[in-house]
Amino acid sequence: MPTLRVAGTFPDWRPFAGRGIVTVLILTMTGCGSGKSSRSRISPPARGGATATVAQGPKTGPPVSKSTRPTRAATARKRPGIRVNEEQGQSKALFEVVNLKQADLDNLASAGLRQQQWQELFRVYVDQESKPEKQDPPAILGNYFVENKALRFVPRFPAERGLRYRAVFNPSKMPGHAASEKPVVAHITLPKARPPSDAVVELVYPTTNKLPENQLKFYIHFSAPMSRGESYRHLHLLDAAGKEVDLPFLELDEELWDPAGKRFTLFFDPGRIKRGLKPREEVGPVLEEGKSYALVIDSRWQNANGIVLKESYRKNFTVGPPDDKPPDPKTWKIETPPAGSERPLLVRFPKPMDSALLQRTIEVKDGNGQTIAGGVTIADEEKRWQFTPQRPWQAGKYVLVVDKILEDLAGNSIGRPFEVDVLHPLEKQVQTELVNLPFQIVNPAR
Question: CA-CA distance, 364 to 381, in Å (whole number)?
Answer without folding.
Answer: 22
